[in-house]
Amino acid sequence: MQILADDDWTTFFSESLARDKDHIRWPGLHLGTVLDSIEQDLGTKKPPKGDGSRDQWDTTRHSYIAGGFIWEHIVEQVMASQLDATDEGSIELVWCADCDVVFASDTIGVQWDLHGAHRTLAGNLDGTMLGDLVEYKATWKRLMHSGPTDFRRWIMQVKAYLWLLSRYKNEIRTIVDFYIWGVAGDSYGSKTPKPMVRHWKLQFSPEELDAHWRMIESQTNQRELWRVKESS
Ligand SMILES: [Zn+2]
């Protein structure tokens, strides 16, 4: 045997996937920026090193993101066909604070003319199936003995998504299905951790969702995030 190549393809691999992911995004404020700000105030997130741009990311981070991308975008389609469900796919919903309306950004050309100078907040929903919100997540955190409250960021995300979805669909949506791939799921730190997949179906009250959205609004106003340009 001759070894003809032995290269590290991690960065190439994950950057190729990231390129696919690039699509036209709404130019206003994005929910991720608000959640980052909340987490920094809570002390649960370290501020990004450098300017946080893509070239500051290290290989490990690229690799994690590649895993998450595969799970969230490719498995979603496979699962939808297995479950014989209608997969509405990813959808970006945009709330305009000035007009207090929610619309989908696939009408971006038209909507930009109407809302261009307005304050808008966009959230990117992974998918909706069977009328409910569906989130596909990948994590390296131990999953066996974890509960939904161990994943504060995800919960904050989906509560905001449900609020946006309710407004957009004009009917209350309170339920989310999580399909979580725990890469080192059953025994983090052990020599032979086994991956696992968990399903959580969670319901929130409409009051909870309203309160959460008011919190997002007040964070956005207090930290003057309307001025922030989306960085990622
Ligand atoms: Zn507007």
Distance between the termini: 44 Å
Q: Which geometry do the CA atoms define?
A: globular
Please state the second-level CATH architecture: Alpha-Beta Complex
Describe the strand arrangement of the main beta sheet, using strand numbers: 1-4-2-3
Instruction: Please tally the helical runs, counting DSSP H or I stretches of 4 or more residues.
Output: 6
Instruction: Tell me the count of domains.
Output: 1
How would you describe what is shown here?
There is one protein chain. This protein has 232 residues and is α/β, with parallel strands linked by helices. It has one domain (25-225): Lambda Exonuclease, Chain A, CATH 3.90.320. 39% of the residues lie in helices and 19% in strands. It is built from 6 helices and 8 strands. The protein has a 4-stranded mixed beta sheet, with helices on both faces. Helix 5 (152-169) links the parallel strand 6 and strand 7. Helix 1 (10-21) packs across helix 3, helix 2 (31-42) runs antiparallel to helix 5 (152-169) and helix 5 crosses helix 6. It is globular and about 65 Å long. The N and C termini lie far apart (44 Å). Bound molecules: zinc ion (ZN). Zinc ion is lined by residues 96, 98-99, 115, 118.
